[in-house]
Amino acid sequence: MRSGIVSAGTWCVDLNKTIDAWPAEDTASRIAAFEREGGGSGHNLATALKRLDPALPVEAMGLVGDDDDGRFLQGICDRLGIARDGLKASAAGPTFFTDCFNAKASGKRTHLYHPGIGDLMAPSDFDFAATRARRLHLGLPGVHATMDRACEGEVNGWAATLKAARRAGLATDLELVSIAADRLAALALPCLPHLDLLVVNDFEIGALAGVETRRDGVADPAGVTAALRAIMSTGPMALAIAHFPEGAIALSRDGAVHRVGSVAMPRAAIAGVNGAGDCFAAGAIYGLHEGFEVERCLALGHAAAAASMREAPTTTGVMPWRECLAMAERWGWR
User: Which of 17, 101, 129, 242 could staple 205 via S-S, CB 3.0–4.6 A?
Assistant: First the structure.
């Protein structure tokens, strides 16, 4: 019996900096708080899952540097009980790191990253022969140079890795990052035929479908639904989910549409939004792994995202899944 999740791809160090406001060029802004934490789609999903349910088997897979930052990420795995045999260390380059700026005035975040060893990560770094996990979560197209190029007879390394995972018996999903829409579509569209699940935000689903999903800077539910319908026809996904600050919409293979509003979180409770999308994905994927109904999966995704936003690091605010849902019920739903 397979059980658990492989969280693969981007494992990086986040250098979180809280500032009052984002400065104009040639000016300065005081850093009010600073901390080093794990980041990247691989780290964020894995650690959020273990915080939602410490008993869930979770495996790390990817490439880090043979350096202090790499050992820092390995230590996080050890503390949370994440199996890390698949998280390889290499002396060929430094660990991927990101400067993450959270601006208190706007509530927005800005990321400046250096991929380091991440640019050398290749499909050969993902070995699914020994895993007994049920699902693979893979990311991030657009920030790993080798994976973004054609290899192993596929248009890019992401498609090659997803195909290998499905051959090994894993259900697959792909995490995206909100880069330029045309670049995002070029990298991700060839991967859709190899996915069982898609969890993205409103911008990303719009970029993939070529559909406008925002109106006056706010998600347009009709546009999001239309984009989900367009994407569902491109691959075998059993479920496609798009989340946004006000809610989430999911489309099942049978055509059923599921909608759940987000948590009505008090603005004063928000310390940062870095990693909230990953935590939404963790809640939704955990719910699917455990056999929850789709609406409950979406609700848990929102609850995990809200819990994460109480702290500046990506996932340290996430609690056991029942506590996340209880907190969400206290705050209410949009």
Answer: 242
Query: 333: which strand partners?
Result: 263
- Alpha carbon of residue 75 to chain centroid: 21
Chain segment 167-182, per-residue pLDDT in tens: 999 999 999 999 999 9
Going edge to edge, which strands form the sheet with 197-201? Answer: 83-90, 58-65, 5-9, 135-139, 171-174, 197-201, 239-244, 247-252, 257-261
CB atoms closer than 10 angstroms to residue 267: 6
* pLDDT tens, residue by residue, 36-85: 999 999 999 999 999 999 999 999 999 999 999 999 999 999 999 999 99
Q: Could you give the dihedral angle defined by the CA atoms of residues 35, 108, 49 and 131, in that order, rounded to the nearest 10 degrees? A: -90
Domain boundaries, the chain: 5-22+32-331
Overall size of the chain counted in residues: 334
Place of tokens 């490439």: 63
CA distance 259 to 329: 17
Task: State the Rg of the chain over Cα.
Answer: 18
